[in-house]
Amino acid sequence: TVLSEKPTTFTITVTSEAGENDETVQTTLKFTYREKYPDEAPLYEVVSQENLDDSDVMDIIKLLEQQAEENLGMVMIFTLVSAVQEKLNEIVDQIKTRREEEKKQKEREAEEEEKQRFHGTPVTIENFLNWKAKFDAELLEIKRKKMKEEEQAGKNKLSGKQLFEMDHNLDTSDIQFLEE
């Protein structure tokens, strides 16, 4: 877009190629020709940007300075814009790489958490014996509570085997029943 004729001032919007998820970075550059252009570098500035960090904008300005110095004496606007285009494409690639690295890092962290979850105390004889003593005490306590509950509820019913062991008349009771 031409902004003025004297001195010639115009803006060019440079957009990167679409990256992953159609992400793009974009900047608008403003150029102003000096009297001695192209023997003198044009004035330039970054007017606006999208999806760029401040460090990326500083890199673009440094790139413009370098390219302008290298191309003194030649028409350079196309060269400057092409260099910025390449830089924006690099930035999109860096963003993609950074996201992939973050994804891989999260996967690694998830794997480490999973490993930590399944990594317990190494079993030694002493550890096992301490655990076994505590476990047996817990089981004994559970059995005692159960027995007390049964006594309080009046559930001292004997099993069939216990009945036969206590009353030997039951040994022949089925035969007597069948004979009658």
Automatic annotation (TrEMBL):
Region (Disordered): 99-118
InterPro entries reported in the protein's UniProt record: GIR2-like (IPR040213), RWD_dom (IPR006575), UBQ-conjugating_enzyme/RWD (IPR016135), ZC3H15/TMA46_C (IPR032378)
Entries under CDD domains matching the protein: RWD_RWDD1 (cd23816)
Organism placement in taxonomy: Eukaryota, Metazoa, Chordata, Craniata, Vertebrata
Annotated GO CC locations: cytoplasm
SMART domains linked to this entry: RWD (SM00591)
Bias (Basic and acidic residues): 99-117
Ranges for domain RWD: 1-91
Annotated protein name in UniProt: RWD domain-containing protein 1
Classification via Pfam families: DFRP_C, RWD
Entry keyword annotation includes DNA damage: no
Cited PROSITE patterns: RWD (PS50908)
Family in the record: Belongs to the RWDD1/GIR2 family.
TM segment ranges: none
Function of the protein: Protects DRG2 from proteolytic degradation.
Entry keyword Cytoplasm: no
Keywords tagged on the record: Acetylation, Phosphoprotein
